[in-house]
Give the backbone structure.
Amino acid sequence: MIVDLLDRRGWGAFLGLGAVLAIGVPLLNLLPASSPFAIPDYLVPLLGKYACYAILALSLDLIWGYAGILSLGQGAFFALGGYAMGMYLMRQIGTRGVYGNAVLPDFMVFLNWKALPWYWYGFDHFAFAAAMALLVPGLLAFVFGWFAFRSRVTGVYLSIITQALTYALLLAFFRNDMGFGGNNGLTDYKDILGFDVHAPATRRGLYVITVIALGLSFLLCRFIVRSRLGRVLLALRDAESRVRFLGYSVTNAKLFAFTVAAVLAGLAGALYVPQVGIINPSEFSPANSIEVAIWVAVGGRGTLVGAILGAGIVNWVKTWLTGAAPEVWLFFLGALFIIVTLALPSGVVGLARQWQARRRRRAVAVPAE
Amino acid sequence: MNDVAMTDTSSRQITADTLLYLDGVTVSFDGFKALNELSLIVTRGELRTIIGPNGAGKTTMMDVITGKTRPDTGTVLFDGNIDLTKLDETAIANLGIGRKFQKPTVFENLTVLQNLELALKGERGTWRTLTAKLSGEGRDRLDATLKTIGLAERQKEIAGALSHGQKQWLEIGMLLIQDQKILLLDEPVAGMTDHETQATAELILSLAGSRTVVVVEHDMEFVRSLGARVTVLHEGSVLAEGSIDHVQNDSRVIEVYLGR
């Protein structure tokens, strides 16, 4: 069944690209810095970060590109996954914190807290934290989606309430009383599963795991969109009430996609935090979630490859531009969104397909002349 | 006028033959009564045509039956004693009530074949559809339906590329393959050529007996060609009922149709 997900060429590209990213990059990183082919240490977590963003973009594409639900709060699920992992990493600091408290993270000691809040229990276990990184976003999406989809909130209204959701979480996590480090968030991590998070070897490992997670996420999304349920999602994007009259539950189909997307976003967030070394409330900012929509639009929504490409391209430009001319970045992003919306409704992938079709037509036309 | 509608149906009762039963159904939108004490009985295997001027409540009646609109008052029963006013569209569709919309509504971004496959009678649960596979029998039914609606050669094309009449046929095909007990067809020949209209009439007639079909239509020639019992709606109630000749000679019907 898995073999059917891609055709021969598709699998070739998938495995080839996967091998370059998951094996080639770490090997080149191992070369001595003097080698012209060496990938410097700083680039490994950066590529890892892009891979996390690609998973996040995939998750949005699943619900927006296929089911037509434009969630502008996808960053909230990403941040929740990130916080779950951040909590584990905080507990691993142990007595190495500034205050040397074996149980309480530094910010709690600073706030004069005497005991660990109940919702921090269990986060000293990696497996528990990893499960929470997926379950919490999934559960929130399930409950939120259940109310929203059952009440038939669609289109721009849904986009607005998802923005409100992420904004509400932003404000909540800013509060010191919440017990998540307030404004500063969670940072100063020491190690993950006993490995030093700053060591190049750990970063290579995290990077490889992220690339593999991206590959598996892609296959999962591919499986969903190619199933009959995937067609139901496409169908309800175009004619929701017709789907109901065919006897499918629109609410359940949307809820499924929305929850899976949230779990994927949580996974992306959990992989992101150990690689960037911090999680703070700014990850909940509505602008972040809107940016994800731009990645997907640039790459081409409704194509999974497009989501991954879009996340890669836009973030690569962002890294370069915020270094070279930081004041230009937001204008660039805005302009990009306008250009893509007006001129490239199906993004980079759509453009590539147009070129392909034109070339094929020309190839057919030439012998006829 | 209401008295007429009431006396017309009060003598009738639910019997074992009754598939669809509407009694005293009223729907109002901002004070405007789209349906006004509407009563209607459709028996199993019957072909029924419903006509009426614009705003007579034909589409609202379909909306009430399929769960899209909740009536303010009245009884809507299906297949004995199933109360349709308590169910949503999905549940009603799964009971065996199929609907074709006035404006042809197919999934424009899916292929013709995929449209039919979605409609194919079978699993509707979300988890089941995730792993659903097309069976050999299902494939045969798809092929047979494609042939019936004359779209076998275009099955791989995107439904959005079809002509208006072909979309109508595809939607009818989706209803056929859904294998519903009752088909509600809202203006099935709107925008069709004469030839297509005739073919549609033949298709509907071929269903007679095996399925219950309710056709809402403006086109009097088409209604006549079906030769079925006609219900005339006016201002949300039944104005007259009987054969096409009977209703066309009814003085009240003439008054409503030809001006007052």
Notes: Strands of chain B lie at 18-29, 32-43, 47-51, 73-78, 82-83, 97-100, 182-186, 212-216, 229-234, 237-242.
